[in-house]
Design goal:
The complex is a heterodimer of chains A (876) and B (304).
Chain A: H1 2-25, E1 27-35, E2 45-50, E3 53-59, E4 65-70, E5 76-82, E6 89-94, E7 101-109, E8 119-120, E9 126-129, E10 132-136, H2 148-152, E11 158-160, E12 166-168, E13 171-172, E14 175-178, H3 189-192, E15 200-207, E16 223-229, E17 238-248, E18 251-263, E19 267-276, H4 293-298, E20 315-329, E21 333-347, E22 350-356, E23 364-370, E24 373-388, E25 392-408, E26 411-413, E27 419-440, E28 443-465, E29 471-493, E30 498-517, E31 522-535, E32 538-542, E33 548-565, E34 578-594, E35 600-612, E36 623-626, E37 629-631, E38 639-653, E39 658-679, E40 685-709, E41 714-731, E42 734-751, E43 757-772, E44 775-790, E45 796-809, E46 817-828, E47 831-838, E48 845-852, E49 855-862, E50 867-875
Parallel strand pairs in A: 1-7, 14-16, 37-40, 39-41
Antiparallel strand pairs in A: 1-4, 2-3, 2-5, 5-6, 9-10, 10-15, 11-12, 12-13, 15-16, 17-18, 17-50, 18-19, 19-20, 20-21, 21-24, 22-23, 22-49, 23-26, 24-25, 25-27, 27-28, 28-29, 29-30, 30-31, 30-32, 31-33, 32-33, 33-34, 34-35, 35-38, 36-37, 38-39, 39-40, 40-41, 41-42, 42-43, 43-44, 44-45, 45-46, 46-47, ...
Chain B: H1 2-18, H2 36-39, E1 50-54, E2 58-69, E3 75-86, E4 91-95, H3 96-106, H4 112-123, E5 131-134, E6 140-147, E7 150-157, E8 164-172, E9 175-184, E10 187-194, E11 212-218, E12 223-232, E13 237-240, E14 245-247, H5 250-262, H6 264-267, E15 276-278, E16 284-286, E17 289-291
Parallel strand pairs in B: 7-14
Antiparallel strand pairs in B: 1-13, 2-3, 2-12, 3-4, 4-5, 5-6, 6-7, 8-9, 9-10, 10-11, 11-12, 15-16, 16-17
Helix pairs in contact in B: 3-4
Classes of the chains: A mainly beta (876), B alpha+beta (304).
C-alpha cells in the first residue's frame, strides 16, 4: 500500500513539473521595430514562421518593442515585421543554443507606397426587417433587364401581371413608393416601365402595410412596395431618351420617347413623353376609362380580347404625356400632382364563328369577320395634399378626367355583305375627397367627405348597312350622375389588444339617363335618387404576441331608392315604370389573420351581404347595343344576396428562398331576377331580366410556389388556378343551368447559370369545360414563350424569342403556331443600340375559343406580320 | 414599471418647466455639456471637439448581423452598419452614421449637413451606440457607451484576448484569411484575419491577431461582424471629446449596461434627471444623453 502511495506521489510530482518544464522550454524572441528615420513604430505586426507555419505573433508596443514566445524544439524561425505604409521585411533567426531569450535587435522598415486592395463586397441579397423584406435588385436581375419592371420579374414572390400590375405572393400591392414617397399613385407602371433598372438598388416589400401612419402598428392584409435608388441618381436630373424606326410590310414604323426624372429627399418628379406606332403604350400608363350610365346602357363595341399579347395583333398609333411630381411640405405633409394625356388609335382584325344556343336542338351558327378600330383621347389631373402624422391624417384629393372614345366594329359576312357600326362616347368626371382622421389618447375620430360628378353628354351608336351613308339605326344616350358621401366614425382602444369602432356613412346618388333609338322611336328618360345609410360597428382583437388578429364587422345598411322612367306616352308599351324601394339589411363580415411565425401567414374571411340592383335596369324601352344585340330591360330592380368565404395561406423563407401562396374562395349568390336572352333571326339577341328566384355558385382556387436557386441564378415559379361556376339563364324561353370549369397552370422559369446566357420560359396551359343540358364541350390551349439571351461580350446582347401555341378541342384540330423574334443590342457608355426582327416567320393567324354562358365563340385573329425595328436609347 | 415611467415623466415635466433655458443646450451647473457627437446636433462642432488618434488610414465598413430575440421570444434579425477606421497607431470602431456625422466636420461641412446626419443617426432603426478606440491611450482600448443618463468609459489592455490559431482558411472581402478562436466576454468567438493587411486591429474590441480581423462570429451565431468594403481613409481617426463621461472599469460597465438595457426606465433614478426631451422620430434624451431605441430588445455582446 505504501508503495502505491509513493508511486502516486512521484507521478503527481512529475506531472506537475511537466508544464513548468514546457513553459521554460519556450524561447522568447524580442526586439524593436523602427522606420527608416529610426523612429519607433507602434502597432507593427511581428510574426515568426517555422517553414510555412505561423508559430508566434505579436505587435509592437508604445516603445516599438515586441516579445514573441516560440515553442521549444524549433531551431530556426523566419521573423517578419510589417506595418501599414511600410514594406514588409523578414529575416531568419537561429534559436538553437541561444538560451531562452533571443534579442533580434532592431528591425528597420522602409516606407512603401503599397496600397491595400480596395474592395467592396456586395450587400446581402435578401434581408428582413420586421414586416419588411428587402431584396437587392442587382442580385436577382439579369444583364438583359433594362427597365425596373423587367428587373422586378426576377424577384422571388413577385409577378408582373398584364397592364403592369404587381403581385406579391398572390396579392396585388396596395401602394408603390419611391424612397418612401408615393409619386405616381395607383398608376405605378409609369415608374416601373420608364425607370431604368440600373437606377434601383433595393426592392422593399412591406407586409402588414398601413398607408396612413395613424394606423401604423395595426395588422392589415396589404403589401406595399418601396424602391430604394442608387445614390448616383439622387439629387440630380436623370432620364432616358430613345428613338426607334422600322418597317412592317410596307408600313413605316417609329417610336420616340423621353423621360426626365428628379429624386431628391423631399421632391420627386417624373416627366414622360412618348409617341409611336410600334407598340401600344399610352393607356396602360394612365388612369382607366370613366364608367357612366350612358356608356353602360349602350354597351361597348370593344370586340373580343384574346389571351395573347396585344403587341402580336394590334396596330397602334399612340401618344402619351405624363407629369408626376411630389413635394414634401414640412415634416409630414406632401403635395402630389399627376397630369396625363394619352391618345391611342388601334386597329386589328379577326374572324368570329359564334355557336348560339337554340332550344330547337340545333345551335345557331354565325360567321363574320371584323376589322375593329378604336381611338381614345384621355386626359386628367390628380392633385393630392396629404398630412400624414402618427396622430393626424388630413388628405384632400381632387381628380378630374375626360375620355373621348370612338370605336368601329363593322362585320363583313361570308356572302360579301357588311354592316357599319360605330360608337362615340364622351365622359367627364370630377371628384374631390376630403379626409380628416385624428387620434387623441385611446380615441380616434374620422370624417370623410366625398363628392363626384360624372357627365356623359353624348354616347352614340350608329348602325347601317354597307357604308356610313346608309345609316339604318342611331342609338343615342346621355347621362349625368352626382354623388356625395359623408363618412364619420370613431374608434376606441379598449385595451392594448382590443379596438371597437363605429363608422357611419351617408351616401346620396342622383342619376339621370336618357336614351333615344331613332329606328324604333324608342326612348327612355330615367331619373333616380338613391340614399344609403350604413352603420358598421366593428370589434378588432390583436393578441399580445401580435400573431393573431381578428375583426368582426356588422354592417347595418338602409337604402331608399326612387327611380322613374318617364317614357313619352305614345311610345310606352308597358307604361312608365316607377319604383320605390326601402330596404334595411344586416351584412356581417369576419376576418382573421394568423402568423404563427415569420414564415407563415394564414387568413380566413367571410361574410354575408345584400345588394340592390342598378337603377339602369329601369330602362325598359329597347336600347340597341350592336347590330345584333338589343337590350330591353324589364323595369325590375333585383335584390342580390351574396355569401362568401375565403381562405388563404402564404409562406416565405428568405434564407432558402422558397415562396408560396394558396387561396380558395367560395361564393353563392341568390337573386330574385334572372337574365333572359332571346335570339331571333340573323342572330339578333334581345337581352333582359325577368322576376324569378335563382342562384349561382362560384369556387376559385389559386396557388403558386417559387424557388430561387441563387448560385445557379434560377427562379422557378409554378402558378396554378382553377374555377368552377354554376349559374342559370333563361334563353329561348327555357331555363337552363350551365356550368363552366377552368384549370390553368403557369410555369415561369428564368435561369442564368453563367454570366453570358439567360433563359426565360413562360408557359401557360389552360383547359376550359362547358356543360349545359346535354351539351358537353371543352378545349385546351398551351402557350409557351421561350426567350434566350446571350451576352457574348461586354455590352453585347443577342436574343431569341419563340412563342409557341398548341390548341385543341373535340371538334377541330388547329394547326400549331410558332412566332419567332430575334434581337440584338449593344450597350456602349450611356447608349444602347437595338435591332429587332419580330415574327420573323411571318405567321399571320391565331385561334382562340371562349365560352360565354350557353354560347361558344371561336376566333381567328390576324397577327401582325414581320416587323423590323432599330433604335437607340441614351440613359443619362 | 408604469408608476416609474409616470414619475419619470412628471419629474421631466417639472424640470422642463423650471430649467427650460438649460435644457439640452450646454448645461449650466449640474447639467454638464453633452458629448460632442451627440448634443451638437444643435451646436456648431469644430475639429477642436475631437482628439486626433491617427492620420487617415483605411476605412473598413462592417455589417454587424445580430439575431435578436424580441419580447415574444421570436428570433428577429437586426443589421447594423459600422465603420472601422484603422491606421498605424490606432483604430476606431463606431456606428456608420456616427462616423459620417463626425467626418462631416473634417470634410469642411458647415455643420448643417452634420446636423442632418446626426438626426438621421438618431432615427436609425438599429444603431451601435458604442465607440471603441484601440491603441488609445497607447497599448489600451478605450470603450465608451451610453448608459443613460451617463456615458460610461473604461479602458482595458490591448491584446488581452487569448487567440488560438486554427488551420481553417477562408476568403473574406477578397482577402485570404486565417482563423482563430478565443473566449471573451462570456462568448466563444471565431475570427477571420487577413495576414496580407498588417494591422492588429479589428471590429468592436477584437484585436491581437497577425492581420486585420475581417470577420468575427460567436459560436451561437448571435453576433456576426463582417467586413463588406475596404478603402483608403479620407478623414483622420479621432476620439470625440465628451465631458459627460463617467469613468469605470469593464466589469462595472458590463453590469450597468446590461441592467440598463434590460429596463432603461427602471435603471434611471428620477433624481438624476435634469432635463428630458423628445426629438422627432421619438428619440428620447435625458440630460442630453439619448435613450437607445431597441425595437427588439437588447442583445448584449458581452455576457460577463
Amino acid at each position: 500500500m505504501s508503495r502505491v502511495v509513493l508511486l502516486t506521489l512521484i507521478a503527481l510530482l512529475l506531472s506537475a513539473s511537466f508544464p513548468r518544464v514546457s513553459a521554460q522550454d519556450k524561447t522568447a524572441l524580442c526586439g524593436k521595430v523602427v522606420d527608416d528615420q529610426s523612429e519607433l513604430l507602434v502597432g507593427a505586426t511581428v510574426k515568426a514562421y517555422s517553414g510555412k507555419r505561423l508559430v508566434a505573433f505579436g505587435a509592437t508596443d508604445a516603445k516599438g518593442a515586441f516579445r514573441l514566445r516560440v515553442a521549444a524544439g524549433i531551431d530556426t524561425v523566419r521573423l517578419t515585421a510589417a506595418c501599414l505604409g511600410f514594406a514588409e521585411t523578414s529575416r531568419m533567426v537561429c534559436l538553437k543554443g541561444r538560451g531562452t531569450t533571443v534579442d533580434v535587435g532592431t528591425i528597420r522598415l522602409d516606407v512603401a507606397s503599397r496600397q491595400l486592395r480596395e474592395v467592396v463586397v456586395k450587400a446581402p441579397d435578401v434581408r428582413e426587417r420586421g414586416d419588411t423584406t428587402v431584396f437587392r435588385l442587382s442580385a436577382f436581375s439579369g444583364k438583359g433587364d433594362v427597365t425596373l419592371e423587367e428587373g422586378l420579374r426576377k424577384i422571388p414572390g413577385i409577378e408582373i401581371m398584364p397592364g403592369g400590375k404587381i403581385n406579391y405572393l398572390g396579392r396585388g400591392i396596395s401602394n408603390f413608393y419611391v424612397e418612401g414617397l408615393q409619386l405616381a399613385g395607383s398608376r405605378y407602371s409609369r415608374i416601373t416601365r420608364n425607370l431604368p433598372a440600373e437606377y434601383v438598388t433595393d426592392i422593399e416589400l412591406i407586409e402588414n402595410h398601413q398607408a396612413a401612419r395613424i394606423d401604423s402598428g395595426r395588422k392589415s392584409d396589404d403589401v406595399a412596395l418601396n424602391i430604394r435608388l442608387n445614390s448616383k441618381v439622387k439629387f440630380r436630373p436623370v432620364g432616358t431618351l430613345s428613338a426607334k424606326g422600322g418597317v412592317r410590310g410596307s408600313d413605316p414604323l417609329y417610336e420616340v420617347a423621353a423621360n426626365g426624372m428628379m429624386f431628391a429627399s423631399s421632391f420627386q418628379a417624373l416627366l414622360t413623353v412618348k409617341a409611336g406606332n410600334i407598340r401600344q403604350m399610352a393607356l396602360e400608363e394612365i388612369e382607366p376609362a370613366i364608367g357612366s350610365a350612358a356608356s353602360e346602357a349602350e354597351g361597348s363595341l370593344i370586340g373580343d380580347t384574346p389571351p395573347l399579347s396585344r403587341s402580336r395583333y394590334v396596330s397602334p398609333a399612340d401618344r402619351l404625356v405624363t407629369a408626376d411630381a411630389i413635394k414634401g411640405l414640412g415634416r409630414d405633409a406632401t403635395l402630389r400632382a399627376n397630369l396625363y394625356y394619352g391618345y391611342s388609335h388601334t386597329a386589328w382584325s379577326y374572324g368570329q364563328q359564334s355557336r348560339l344556343f337554340d332550344n330547337s336542338g340545333r345551335d345557331l351558327l354565325l360567321q363574320e369577320n371584323y376589322d375593329p378600330t378604336a381611338s381614345v383621347h384621355r386626359a386628367g389631373i390628380d392633385l393630392n395634399f396629404r398630412k400624414d402624422s402618427p396622430k393626424t391624417l388630413i388628405s384632400n384629393r381632387l381628380l378630374g378626367q375626360f375620355d373621348f372614345e370612338r370605336r368601329n366594329l363593322s362585320p363583313s359576312f361570308t356572302d360579301g355583305s357588311s354592316i357599319f357600326q360605330q360608337s362615340k362616347t364622351r365622359n367627364w368626371k370630377i371628384s374631390d375627397e376630403l379626409m380628416l382622421d385624428f387620434r387623441t389618447g385611446k380615441r380616434r375620430f374620422m370624417l370623410i367627405a366625398n363628392g363626384a360628378y360624372t357627365i356623359s353628354p353624348l354616347a352614340s351608336l350608329v348602325v347601317g348597312e354597307g357604308s356610313v351613308t346608309e345609316i339604318s339605326g342611331c342609338q343615342n344616350a346621355s347621362s349625368h350622375r352626382a354623388e356625395a358621401d359623408l363618412s364619420s366614425g370613431f374608434s376606441w382602444d379598449l385595451s392594448w389588444c382590443s379596438v371597437i369602432g363605429l363608422p357611419l356613412k351617408v351616401e346620396w346618388i342622383n342619376e339621370h339617363v336618357e336614351t333615344d333609338w331613332s329606328l324604333r322611336d324608342s326612348r327612355n328618360d330615367l331619373g333616380s335618387n338613391q340614399l344609403e345609410l350604413s352603420l358598421s360597428p366593428y370589434y378588432e382583437f390583436t393578441s399580445r404576441d401580435r400573431r393573431f388578429n381578428f375583426r368582426a364587422t356588422a354592417n347595418v345598411e338602409g337604402l331608399l331608392l326612387h327611380a322613374d322612367n318617364n317614357i313619352p306616352g305614345s311610345q310606352a308599351d308597358n307604361g312608365s315604370p316607377s319604383v320605390r324601394i326601402t330596404d334595411l339589411f344586416l351584412s356581417p363580415e369576419l376576418r382573421m389573420k394568423f402568423e404563427p411565425n415569420r414564415k407563415f401567414t394564414f387568413t380566413l374571411g367571410g361574410g354575408h351581404g345584400r345588394k340592390i340592383g342598378d337603377p339602369i335596369e329601369m330602362l325598359s324601352q329597347p336600347v340597341m347595343q350592336s347590330f345584333r344585340s338589343v337590350v330591353a330591360r324589364s323595369g325590375l330592380i333585383g335584390r342580390i344576396t351574396t355569401t362568401h368565404l375565403a381562405v388563404g395561406a402564404r409562406f416565405r423563407n428568405t434564407i432558402s428562398l422558397w415562396f408560396a401562396d394558396a387561396s380558395a374562395s367560395l361564393s353563392r349568390q341568390n337573386k330574385d331576377v334572372i337574365s333572359t336572352r332571346l335570339i331571333g333571326e340573323g342572330g339578333v339577341s334581345e337581352n333582359g331580366l325577368v322576376s324569378m328566384d335563382n342562384s349561382s355558385r362560384r369556387l376559385s382556387l389559386s396557388g403558386s410556389v417559387t424557388k430561387q436557386f441563387r448560385e445557379a441564378g434560377i427562379k422557378i415559379t409554378l402558378r396554378g388556378s382553377g374555377g368552377w361556376n354554376s349559374a342559370e339563364i333563361v334563353q329561348q324561353e327555357q331555363l337552363v343551368t350551365y356550368r363552366t370549369r377552368m384549370v390553368r397552370i403557369n410555369p415561369w422559369i428564368t435561369a442564368s447559370p453563367w454570366q453570358w446566357v439567360e433563359l426565360r420560359i413562360d408557359s401557360d396551359w389552360q383547359k376550359q369545360f362547358s356543360r349545359y343540358l346535354q351539351s358537353r364541350s371543352d378545349n385546351w390551349n398551351w402557350t409557351n414563350s421561350i426567350r434566350l439571351l446571350f451576352f457574348p461580350a461586354d455590352g453585347w446582347e443577342l436574343s431569341g424569342n419563340l412563342d409557341f401555341v398548341k390548341k385543341g378541342d373535340a371538334r377541330i384540330n388547329y394547326p400549331d403556331v410558332a412566332l419567332l423574334d430575334l434581337g440584338a443590342a449593344w450597350k456602349v457608355g450611356k447608349f444602347r443600340i437595338t435591332l429587332n426582327a419580330d415574327n420573323l416567320l411571318n405567321r399571320r393567324s391565331w385561334h382562340y375559343t371562349r365560352y360565354d354562358g350557353l354560347d361558344t365563340y371561336d376566333y381567328t385573329f390576324r397577327l401582325l406580320g414581320r416587323t423590323i425595328t432599330a433604335g437607340i436609347t441614351m440613359t443619362m | 414599471m408604469c408608476s416609474k415611467i409616470i414619475s419619470l415623466a412628471a419629474c421631466a415635466l417639472l424640470v422642463s418647466i423650471t430649467v427650460q433655458a438649460q435644457v439640452v443646450v450646454k448645461g449650466a451647473a449640474g447639467a454638464p455639456a453633452a458629448r460632442a457627437s451627440e448634443t451638437q446636433t444643435r451646436e456648431r462642432v469644430t475639429k477642436e471637439d475631437f482628439t486626433p488618434i491617427d492620420n487617415a488610414g483605411y476605412e473598413c465598413v462592417f455589417q454587424w448581423d445580430v439575431v435578436a430575440t424580441d419580447k415574444d421570444g421570436r428570433k428577429v434579425p437586426e443589421v447594423y452598419a459600422c465603420m472601422l477606421q484603422f491606421g498605424q497607431n490606432g483604430a476606431r470602431f463606431t456606428d456608420y452614421r456616427t462616423f459620417q456625422a463626425d467626418s462631416a466636420v473634417f470634410a469642411g461641412g458647415d455643420g448643417v449637413g452634420r446636423r442632418a446626419l446626426s438626426s438621421a443617426r438618431g432615427n436609425a432603426e438599429f444603431q451601435f451606440t458604442g465607440d471603441v478606440i484601440q491603441g488609445y491611450p497607447s497599448g489600451k482600448i478605450t470603450y465608451t457607451d451610453i448608459v443613460t443618463p451617463d456615458y460610461l468609459e473604461y479602458t482595458e489592455p490591448l491584446g488581452n484576448i487569448e487567440w488560438q490559431l486554427e488551420e481553417a482558411t477562408d476568403t473574406v472581402c477578397g482577402y485570404l484569411c486565417g482563423t482563430a478562436t478565443a473566449d471573451y466576454g462570456g462568448r466563444r468567438w471565431t475570427a477571420w484575419y487577413a495576414e496580407e493587411i498588417p494591422s492588429v486591429y479589428g471590429p468592436w474590441k477584437f484585436n491581437g491577431l497577425p492581420g486585420l480581423i475581417l470577420k468575427v462570429c460567436d459560436s451561437e451565431g448571435v453576433h456576426t461582424m463582417q467586413a463588406i468594403s475596404i478603402k483608403r481613409g479620407e478623414v483622420p481617426i479621432v476620439k470625440p471629446h465628451n465631458k459627460m463621461i463617467v469613468t469605470t472599469d469593464r466589469k462595472n460597465f458590463v453590469d450597468s449596461k446590461n441592467r440598463f438595457e434590460k429596463k432603461p426606465f427602471d435603471y434611471i433614478s428620477p433624481e438624476s434627471i435634469t432635463s428630458m426631451d423628445v426629438h422627432s422620430g421619438g428619440q428620447v434624451f435625458i440630460n442630453g444623453v439619448p435613450v437607445p431605441k431597441r425595437p427588439n430588445g437588447y442583445t448584449p455582446v458581452e455576457l460577463k
